[in-house]
Protein backbone atom coordinates (compact mmCIF):
# COMPACT_ATOMS: atom_id res chain seq x y z
CA UNK A 1 0.00 0.00 0.00
CA UNK A 2 1.19 3.50 -0.73
CA UNK A 3 2.00 5.68 2.28
CA UNK A 4 2.12 9.36 1.33
CA UNK A 5 3.60 10.47 4.64
CA UNK A 6 6.98 12.06 3.85
CA UNK A 7 7.54 15.74 3.15
CA UNK A 8 10.10 17.00 0.64
CA UNK A 9 12.42 17.75 3.57
CA UNK A 10 12.01 14.19 4.91
CA UNK A 11 12.81 12.68 1.52
CA UNK A 12 15.75 15.05 1.06
CA UNK A 13 17.24 13.89 4.36
CA UNK A 14 16.72 10.17 3.63
CA UNK A 15 18.13 10.34 0.13
CA UNK A 16 20.97 12.69 0.99
CA UNK A 17 20.06 15.11 -1.78
CA UNK A 18 18.77 18.68 -1.89
CA UNK A 19 15.11 19.67 -1.95
CA UNK A 20 15.40 20.80 -5.56
CA UNK A 21 16.50 17.28 -6.54
CA UNK A 22 13.56 15.76 -4.68
CA UNK A 23 11.18 18.05 -6.57
CA UNK A 24 12.90 16.98 -9.79
CA UNK A 25 12.33 13.33 -8.94
CA UNK A 26 8.66 14.04 -8.21
CA UNK A 27 8.12 15.87 -11.51
CA UNK A 28 9.84 13.09 -13.46
CA UNK A 29 7.66 10.45 -11.79
CA UNK A 30 10.62 8.71 -10.16
CA UNK A 31 9.10 9.39 -6.73
CA UNK A 32 5.41 8.73 -6.15
CA UNK A 33 3.81 11.81 -4.58
CA UNK A 34 0.53 13.63 -4.11
CA UNK A 35 -0.05 17.31 -3.50
CA UNK A 36 -2.19 17.82 -0.41
CA UNK A 37 -2.91 21.11 1.30
CA UNK A 38 -0.42 22.91 -0.94
CA UNK A 39 2.58 20.66 -0.17
CA UNK A 40 3.98 17.49 -1.70
CA UNK A 41 3.62 14.29 0.30
CA UNK A 42 5.82 11.44 -0.93
CA UNK A 43 5.29 7.70 -0.73
CA UNK A 44 7.71 6.27 1.83
CA UNK A 45 8.18 3.03 -0.13
CA UNK A 46 9.03 5.06 -3.21
CA UNK A 47 11.78 6.87 -1.29
CA UNK A 48 13.13 3.62 0.20
CA UNK A 49 13.18 2.01 -3.23
CA UNK A 50 15.09 4.97 -4.59
CA UNK A 51 17.59 4.81 -1.73
CA UNK A 52 18.16 1.07 -2.06
CA UNK A 53 18.36 1.26 -5.85
CA UNK A 54 17.09 -1.80 -7.75
CA UNK A 55 15.80 -4.68 -5.61
CA UNK A 56 17.63 -8.05 -5.76
CA UNK A 57 16.65 -10.44 -8.52
CA UNK A 58 13.77 -12.73 -7.64
CA UNK A 59 12.71 -10.65 -4.65
CA UNK A 60 8.96 -9.88 -4.75
CA UNK A 61 7.94 -6.26 -4.49
CA UNK A 62 6.55 -4.97 -1.21
CA UNK A 63 2.87 -5.68 -0.93
CA UNK A 64 0.08 -5.47 1.57
CA UNK A 65 -3.12 -7.42 2.03
CA UNK A 66 -4.73 -4.30 3.44
CA UNK A 67 -5.30 -2.75 0.04
CA UNK A 68 -5.22 1.04 0.01
CA UNK A 69 -6.11 1.53 3.67
CA UNK A 70 -4.40 4.59 5.15
CA UNK A 71 -4.37 5.89 8.69
CA UNK A 72 -5.00 9.55 9.45
CA UNK A 73 -5.30 11.80 12.47
CA UNK A 74 -8.29 14.12 12.62
CA UNK A 75 -6.93 17.47 13.76
CA UNK A 76 -8.68 20.55 15.13
CA UNK A 77 -6.25 23.34 14.40
CA UNK A 78 -3.09 22.23 16.28
CA UNK A 79 -4.89 19.68 18.46
CA UNK A 80 -4.99 15.95 17.72
CA UNK A 81 -8.60 14.73 18.10
CA UNK A 82 -8.71 11.09 17.03
CA UNK A 83 -7.28 8.63 14.55
CA UNK A 84 -9.10 6.77 11.80
CA UNK A 85 -8.45 4.50 8.85
CA UNK A 86 -9.74 5.19 5.34
CA UNK A 87 -9.92 2.73 2.43
CA UNK A 88 -8.90 4.65 -0.69
CA UNK A 89 -10.05 1.91 -3.05
CA UNK A 90 -13.51 1.59 -1.48
CA UNK A 91 -13.84 5.27 -0.64
CA UNK A 92 -15.01 4.39 2.86
CA UNK A 93 -13.98 4.81 6.47
CA UNK A 94 -12.73 1.55 7.98
CA UNK A 95 -12.78 2.49 11.65
CA UNK A 96 -12.22 5.32 14.12
CA UNK A 97 -10.63 5.26 17.52
CA UNK A 98 -7.74 6.40 19.72
CA UNK A 99 -9.59 9.48 20.94
CA UNK A 100 -7.10 12.06 22.16
CA UNK A 101 -9.18 15.21 22.69
CA UNK A 102 -12.95 14.55 22.89
CA UNK A 103 -13.71 18.17 23.84
CA UNK A 104 -12.42 19.41 20.47
CA UNK A 105 -14.07 16.73 18.35
CA UNK A 106 -16.96 17.73 16.05
CA UNK A 107 -19.91 18.37 18.33
CA UNK A 108 -22.01 15.25 18.87
CA UNK A 109 -19.54 12.82 17.28
CA UNK A 110 -18.01 11.43 20.48
CA UNK A 111 -20.05 9.34 22.93
CA UNK A 112 -21.18 11.23 26.06
CA UNK A 113 -18.36 9.74 28.17
CA UNK A 114 -15.77 10.59 25.51
CA UNK A 115 -14.69 7.00 25.04
CA UNK A 116 -15.68 6.03 21.53
CA UNK A 117 -16.70 7.26 18.11
CA UNK A 118 -18.37 5.17 15.44
CA UNK A 119 -17.18 5.11 11.85
CA UNK A 120 -20.81 5.79 10.87
CA UNK A 121 -20.78 9.04 12.84
CA UNK A 122 -17.48 10.01 11.24
CA UNK A 123 -18.79 9.09 7.76
CA UNK A 124 -21.96 11.14 8.26
CA UNK A 125 -20.00 14.16 9.42
CA UNK A 126 -17.57 13.82 6.51
CA UNK A 127 -20.40 13.49 3.98
CA UNK A 128 -21.69 16.91 5.02
CA UNK A 129 -18.18 18.30 4.72
CA UNK A 130 -18.28 17.72 0.98
CA UNK A 131 -19.83 19.20 -2.10
CA UNK A 132 -23.31 17.68 -2.44
CA UNK A 133 -23.88 15.37 -5.38
CA UNK A 134 -26.75 17.61 -6.49
CA UNK A 135 -24.63 20.66 -7.25
CA UNK A 136 -24.64 21.52 -10.94
CA UNK A 137 -21.62 20.19 -12.83
CA UNK A 138 -20.39 17.87 -10.08
CA UNK A 139 -20.79 14.68 -12.16
CA UNK A 140 -18.50 16.02 -14.88
CA UNK A 141 -16.04 17.18 -12.22
CA UNK A 142 -15.95 13.75 -10.61
CA UNK A 143 -15.25 12.18 -14.00
CA UNK A 144 -12.44 14.69 -14.59
CA UNK A 145 -10.89 13.87 -11.22
CA UNK A 146 -11.36 10.12 -11.70
CA UNK A 147 -13.34 9.63 -8.50
CA UNK A 148 -16.86 8.33 -8.01
CA UNK A 149 -17.94 10.31 -4.95
CA UNK A 150 -17.63 13.91 -3.70
CA UNK A 151 -16.55 12.44 -0.33
CA UNK A 152 -13.16 11.57 -1.84
CA UNK A 153 -12.39 15.11 -2.95
CA UNK A 154 -11.48 16.68 0.44
CA UNK A 155 -8.67 14.13 0.81
CA UNK A 156 -6.90 16.05 -1.96
CA UNK A 157 -6.53 19.08 0.31
CA UNK A 158 -6.22 17.51 3.78
CA UNK A 159 -9.93 18.15 4.39
CA UNK A 160 -9.16 21.81 5.07
CA UNK A 161 -12.04 24.25 5.27
CA UNK A 162 -12.81 27.91 5.96
CA UNK A 163 -15.89 27.05 8.05
CA UNK A 164 -13.91 25.39 10.82
CA UNK A 165 -10.43 24.31 11.89
CA UNK A 166 -10.66 20.57 11.17
CA UNK A 167 -8.21 18.84 8.86
CA UNK A 168 -6.73 15.38 8.36
CA UNK A 169 -3.04 14.64 8.81
CA UNK A 170 -1.59 11.40 7.42
CA UNK A 171 -0.19 9.36 10.29
CA UNK A 172 3.54 9.79 10.99
CA UNK A 173 3.60 12.87 8.76
CA UNK A 174 4.89 16.09 10.29
CA UNK A 175 2.72 18.80 8.73
CA UNK A 176 2.17 22.05 10.62
CA UNK A 177 -1.24 23.72 10.73
CA UNK A 178 0.48 27.08 10.29
CA UNK A 179 1.82 25.97 6.90
CA UNK A 180 -1.37 24.60 5.36
CA UNK A 181 -4.50 26.29 6.79
CA UNK A 182 -6.53 28.50 4.47
CA UNK A 183 -7.08 31.27 7.01
CA UNK A 184 -3.41 32.32 6.76
CA UNK A 185 -2.25 30.74 3.50
CA UNK A 186 -3.46 31.49 -0.02
CA UNK A 187 -5.08 28.80 -2.13
CA UNK A 188 -6.11 27.97 -5.69
CA UNK A 189 -8.93 30.23 -6.89
CA UNK A 190 -11.43 30.10 -9.72
CA UNK A 191 -9.98 31.74 -12.77
CA UNK A 192 -12.08 34.43 -14.44
CA UNK A 193 -14.65 33.04 -16.83
CA UNK A 194 -14.10 29.44 -15.75
CA UNK A 195 -16.51 26.96 -14.17
CA UNK A 196 -17.65 27.42 -10.57
CA UNK A 197 -16.03 24.07 -9.86
CA UNK A 198 -12.72 25.01 -11.48
CA UNK A 199 -10.76 24.91 -8.22
CA UNK A 200 -12.35 21.72 -6.92
CA UNK A 201 -9.81 18.92 -6.67
CA UNK A 202 -6.95 21.36 -6.24
CA UNK A 203 -5.51 23.01 -3.14
CA UNK A 204 -8.74 24.83 -2.30
CA UNK A 205 -11.40 25.22 0.42
CA UNK A 206 -13.95 24.66 -2.35
CA UNK A 207 -13.36 20.95 -1.78
CA UNK A 208 -15.28 21.23 1.49
CA UNK A 209 -18.00 23.74 0.53
CA UNK A 210 -21.48 22.54 1.43
CA UNK A 211 -24.70 23.67 -0.29
CA UNK A 212 -26.30 23.22 -3.68
CA UNK A 213 -25.90 26.70 -5.18
CA UNK A 214 -22.68 27.54 -7.04
CA UNK A 215 -20.09 29.12 -4.76
CA UNK A 216 -16.39 29.83 -4.57
CA UNK A 217 -13.90 31.03 -1.95
CA UNK A 218 -11.44 33.76 -2.97
CA UNK A 219 -8.58 35.62 -1.26
CA UNK A 220 -8.66 39.39 -0.87
CA UNK A 221 -5.43 40.14 0.94
CA UNK A 222 -5.90 38.76 4.45
CA UNK A 223 -9.67 38.52 3.95
CA UNK A 224 -11.44 35.36 2.81
CA UNK A 225 -14.52 36.05 0.70
CA UNK A 226 -17.31 33.70 -0.37
CA UNK A 227 -18.75 34.30 -3.83
CA UNK A 228 -22.18 32.80 -4.51
CA UNK A 229 -24.32 32.48 -7.61
CA UNK A 230 -27.98 31.60 -8.10
CA UNK A 231 -30.28 29.17 -9.87
CA UNK A 232 -32.67 29.63 -12.80
CA UNK A 233 -33.65 33.30 -12.34
CA UNK A 234 -30.48 34.10 -10.40
CA UNK A 235 -32.68 35.60 -7.68
CA UNK A 236 -30.73 34.18 -4.72
CA UNK A 237 -27.81 36.68 -4.81
CA UNK A 238 -30.30 39.55 -4.88
CA UNK A 239 -32.19 37.97 -1.99
CA UNK A 240 -29.00 37.97 0.07
CA UNK A 241 -28.49 41.66 -0.63
CA UNK A 242 -32.13 42.34 0.27
CA UNK A 243 -31.78 40.39 3.53
CA UNK A 244 -28.68 42.41 4.42
CA UNK A 245 -30.67 45.60 3.83
CA UNK A 246 -33.41 44.39 6.19
CA UNK A 247 -30.95 43.26 8.86
CA UNK A 248 -29.11 46.59 8.74
CA UNK A 249 -32.36 48.30 9.75
CA UNK A 250 -33.19 46.01 12.67
CA UNK A 251 -30.03 44.30 13.92
CA UNK A 252 -26.55 45.12 15.18
CA UNK A 253 -23.72 44.72 12.61
CA UNK A 254 -22.32 41.62 14.34
CA UNK A 255 -25.69 39.83 14.25
CA UNK A 256 -25.72 39.20 10.50
CA UNK A 257 -23.43 38.54 7.55
CA UNK A 258 -23.41 41.43 5.11
CA UNK A 259 -23.68 40.47 1.43
CA UNK A 260 -22.97 42.80 -1.45
CA UNK A 261 -23.85 42.38 -5.12
CA UNK A 262 -21.17 42.37 -7.77
CA UNK A 263 -21.32 41.88 -11.53
CA UNK A 264 -19.17 39.09 -12.96
CA UNK A 265 -18.77 37.73 -16.48
CA UNK A 266 -21.36 35.04 -15.78
CA UNK A 267 -23.85 37.47 -14.22
CA UNK A 268 -24.51 38.97 -10.81
CA UNK A 269 -23.12 37.25 -7.70
CA UNK A 270 -23.22 38.05 -4.00
CA UNK A 271 -20.08 38.29 -1.90
CA UNK A 272 -19.55 38.19 1.85
CA UNK A 273 -16.64 37.94 4.26
CA UNK A 274 -16.03 34.76 6.22
CA UNK A 275 -17.76 35.09 9.60
CA UNK A 276 -15.55 32.43 11.19
CA UNK A 277 -12.30 33.65 12.76
CA UNK A 278 -8.93 31.93 12.55
CA UNK A 279 -9.48 30.06 15.84
CA UNK A 280 -13.21 29.38 15.37
CA UNK A 281 -15.55 26.79 13.91
CA UNK A 282 -19.15 27.11 12.77
CA UNK A 283 -21.40 24.47 14.34
CA UNK A 284 -24.76 23.99 12.61
CA UNK A 285 -27.81 23.79 14.88
CA UNK A 286 -28.26 20.24 13.59
CA UNK A 287 -25.34 19.12 15.77
CA UNK A 288 -26.18 21.43 18.67
CA UNK A 289 -29.59 19.83 19.09
CA UNK A 290 -28.02 16.37 19.28
CA UNK A 291 -25.91 17.14 22.34
CA UNK A 292 -28.85 16.16 24.58
CA UNK A 293 -31.64 13.63 24.30
CA UNK A 294 -34.94 15.32 23.41
CA UNK A 295 -37.78 14.44 25.83
CA UNK A 296 -41.13 13.67 24.22
CA UNK A 297 -42.79 16.65 25.90
CA UNK A 298 -40.21 19.16 24.56
CA UNK A 299 -40.79 20.73 21.17
CA UNK A 300 -37.83 21.44 18.87
CA UNK A 301 -37.63 25.09 19.91
CA UNK A 302 -37.49 24.37 23.64
CA UNK A 303 -35.05 21.52 23.14
CA UNK A 304 -32.68 23.67 21.10
CA UNK A 305 -32.72 26.36 23.78
CA UNK A 306 -31.89 23.78 26.44
CA UNK A 307 -29.00 22.38 24.39
CA UNK A 308 -27.57 25.88 23.93
CA UNK A 309 -27.96 26.56 27.65
CA UNK A 310 -26.04 23.37 28.46
CA UNK A 311 -23.20 24.66 26.28
CA UNK A 312 -23.26 28.03 28.09
CA UNK A 313 -24.22 29.87 24.91
CA UNK A 314 -25.79 33.19 25.89
CA UNK A 315 -28.67 35.30 24.50
CA UNK A 316 -29.90 32.48 22.26
CA UNK A 317 -33.64 33.08 22.72
CA UNK A 318 -33.48 36.73 21.67
CA UNK A 319 -31.31 35.73 18.69
CA UNK A 320 -33.88 33.14 17.63
CA UNK A 321 -36.61 35.78 17.95
CA UNK A 322 -34.73 38.02 15.55
CA UNK A 323 -34.15 35.14 13.13
CA UNK A 324 -37.80 34.04 13.15
CA UNK A 325 -39.21 37.55 12.67
CA UNK A 326 -36.78 38.51 9.91
CA UNK A 327 -37.36 35.19 8.12
CA UNK A 328 -41.10 35.80 8.38
CA UNK A 329 -40.82 39.23 6.76
CA UNK A 330 -38.64 37.85 3.96
CA UNK A 331 -40.77 34.75 3.38
CA UNK A 332 -37.72 32.54 3.98
CA UNK A 333 -38.56 28.89 3.40
CA UNK A 334 -35.04 27.50 3.78
CA UNK A 335 -33.86 28.19 7.33
CA UNK A 336 -33.02 24.52 7.83
CA UNK A 337 -30.98 23.14 10.74
CA UNK A 338 -27.65 23.69 8.99
CA UNK A 339 -28.42 27.32 8.15
CA UNK A 340 -28.09 28.67 11.68
CA UNK A 341 -26.22 27.67 14.81
CA UNK A 342 -23.27 28.55 17.02
CA UNK A 343 -19.63 29.49 16.62
CA UNK A 344 -17.07 27.90 18.95
CA UNK A 345 -13.54 29.05 19.67
CA UNK A 346 -11.49 25.87 19.47
CA UNK A 347 -8.87 27.18 21.89
CA UNK A 348 -11.14 28.47 24.69
CA UNK A 349 -14.11 26.18 23.82
CA UNK A 350 -16.46 29.13 24.40
CA UNK A 351 -19.55 29.61 22.22
CA UNK A 352 -21.18 32.58 20.55
CA UNK A 353 -24.25 32.82 18.36
CA UNK A 354 -23.54 32.56 14.63
CA UNK A 355 -24.66 35.65 12.70
CA UNK A 356 -27.62 35.29 10.35
CA UNK A 357 -26.48 34.13 6.91
CA UNK A 358 -27.69 32.24 3.83
CA UNK A 359 -31.12 33.75 3.22
CA UNK A 360 -31.09 33.13 -0.54
CA UNK A 361 -34.10 30.79 -0.45
CA UNK A 362 -36.49 33.59 0.45
CA UNK A 363 -38.75 36.21 -1.22
CA UNK A 364 -40.84 33.55 -2.94
CA UNK A 365 -38.03 32.63 -5.34
CA UNK A 366 -39.57 29.18 -5.85
CA UNK A 367 -43.10 30.49 -6.51
CA UNK A 368 -44.44 30.66 -10.05
CA UNK A 369 -45.29 34.01 -11.58
CA UNK A 370 -48.90 32.82 -11.85
CA UNK A 371 -49.18 32.21 -8.11
CA UNK A 372 -47.67 35.63 -7.36
CA UNK A 373 -50.15 37.27 -9.73
CA UNK A 374 -52.91 35.51 -7.82
CA UNK A 375 -51.46 37.04 -4.61
CA UNK A 376 -50.67 33.61 -3.24
CA UNK A 377 -47.94 34.65 -0.82
CA UNK A 378 -48.04 31.52 1.29
CA UNK A 379 -44.80 29.73 2.18
CA UNK A 380 -43.63 26.98 4.48
CA UNK A 381 -41.15 27.79 7.20
CA UNK A 382 -38.27 26.07 8.96
CA UNK A 383 -36.82 24.94 11.31
CA UNK A 384 -39.33 24.71 14.16
CA UNK A 385 -42.71 24.63 12.36
CA UNK A 386 -43.76 24.51 8.73
CA UNK A 387 -46.66 26.89 9.42
CA UNK A 388 -45.37 30.49 9.38
CA UNK A 389 -47.99 31.73 11.84
CA UNK A 390 -47.25 28.97 14.32
CA UNK A 391 -43.51 29.59 14.14
CA UNK A 392 -44.00 33.33 14.63
CA UNK A 393 -45.96 32.66 17.81
CA UNK A 394 -42.76 31.27 19.37
CA UNK A 395 -41.48 34.83 19.61
CA UNK A 396 -42.16 36.44 22.99
CA UNK A 397 -39.66 39.30 22.97
CA UNK A 398 -40.10 42.15 20.46
CA UNK A 399 -38.19 44.72 22.51
CA UNK A 400 -35.58 44.88 19.76
CA UNK A 401 -38.11 45.38 16.95
CA UNK A 402 -38.50 48.96 15.69
CA UNK A 403 -41.38 49.34 13.20
CA UNK A 404 -40.21 52.83 12.25
CA UNK A 405 -36.92 51.35 11.02
CA UNK A 406 -38.85 49.48 8.32
CA UNK A 407 -40.43 52.53 6.74
CA UNK A 408 -39.45 52.57 3.07
CA UNK A 409 -38.00 49.07 3.12
CA UNK A 410 -40.37 47.89 0.37
CA UNK A 411 -39.01 50.63 -1.89
CA UNK A 412 -35.42 49.68 -1.09
CA UNK A 413 -36.26 46.05 -1.79
CA UNK A 414 -37.78 47.01 -5.13
CA UNK A 415 -34.62 48.86 -6.14
CA UNK A 416 -32.43 45.87 -5.26
CA UNK A 417 -34.51 43.25 -7.07
CA UNK A 418 -35.11 45.45 -10.12
CA UNK A 419 -31.42 45.26 -10.98
CA UNK A 420 -32.09 41.68 -12.08
CA UNK A 421 -33.89 41.82 -15.48
CA UNK A 422 -35.26 38.29 -14.97
CA UNK A 423 -37.27 39.51 -11.96
CA UNK A 424 -38.98 42.52 -13.56
CA UNK A 425 -42.44 40.95 -13.63
CA UNK A 426 -42.10 39.58 -10.10
CA UNK A 427 -40.76 42.59 -8.18
CA UNK A 428 -44.03 44.39 -7.42
CA UNK A 429 -45.70 41.22 -6.15
CA UNK A 430 -42.72 40.33 -3.93
CA UNK A 431 -42.63 43.83 -2.46
CA UNK A 432 -46.38 43.65 -1.84
CA UNK A 433 -45.95 40.34 -0.02
CA UNK A 434 -43.15 41.71 2.16
CA UNK A 435 -45.14 44.80 3.08
CA UNK A 436 -48.06 42.58 4.08
CA UNK A 437 -45.77 40.58 6.37
CA UNK A 438 -44.45 43.79 7.96
CA UNK A 439 -47.95 45.24 8.44
CA UNK A 440 -49.12 42.02 10.05
CA UNK A 441 -46.33 42.06 12.63
CA UNK A 442 -46.93 45.72 13.39
CA UNK A 443 -50.63 45.03 13.95
CA UNK A 444 -49.72 42.17 16.29
CA UNK A 445 -47.67 44.56 18.38
What does this structure look like?
It is a single chain. With 445 residues, the protein is α+β, with helices and mostly antiparallel strands. Helix content is 29%, strand content 17%. It contains 14 helices and 14 strands. The chain has helices at residues 8-15, 19-28, 44-51, 119-127, 138-145, 177-180, 236-250, 285-288, 300-310, 316-330, 369-373, 388-392, 409-417, 427-444; strands at 4-6, 33-36, 39-43, 69-76, 79-87, 92-97, 166-170, 215-220, 223-228, 260-264, 267-273, 280-284, 341-345, 351-353. The longest helix has 18 residues, at 427-444. The termini are far apart. The model is unreliable at 54-65 (pLDDT under 50).
Outline of this structure?
With 445 residues, this protein is of the alpha+beta class. Helices cover 29% and strands 17% of the residues.
For this entry, give a set of tags.
445 residues, alpha+beta, four-stranded antiparallel beta sheet, 14 helices, 14 strands, 29% helix, globular
**Biggest sheet strand line-up:** 6-5-4-7
| Fraction in helix | 25-40%
Structural class: alpha+beta
* Assembly state (oligomeric): single chain
The overall strand count is 14
Give the number of helices: 14
Approximately what portion of the residues adopt beta-strand conformation? 15-25%
Helix and strand succession?
EHHEEHEEEHHEHEEHEEEHHHEEHHHH
Shape: globular
| Biggest sheet character | 4 strands, antiparallel
Taking the alpha carbons of the first and last residues, their distance comes to 68 Å
Rg, alpha carbons: 25 Å
Question: What is the mean predicted local confidence, pLDDT?
Answer: 90
Unreliable parts: 54-65
Amino acid sequence: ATMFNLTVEDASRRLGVGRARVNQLIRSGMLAAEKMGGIWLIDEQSVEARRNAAPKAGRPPASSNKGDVRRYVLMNRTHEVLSFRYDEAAGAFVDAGDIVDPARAPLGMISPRGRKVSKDALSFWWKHRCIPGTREGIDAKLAELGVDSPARIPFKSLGLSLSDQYWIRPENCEIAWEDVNYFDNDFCEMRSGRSWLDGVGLDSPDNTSEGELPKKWVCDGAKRLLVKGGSVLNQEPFNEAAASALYSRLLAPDEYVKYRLESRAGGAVCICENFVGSTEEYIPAYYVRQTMRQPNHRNDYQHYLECCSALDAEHVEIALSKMIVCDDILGNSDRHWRNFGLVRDVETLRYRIAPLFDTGGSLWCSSTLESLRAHDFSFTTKPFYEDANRQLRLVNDYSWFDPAALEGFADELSAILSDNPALVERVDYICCAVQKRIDRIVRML
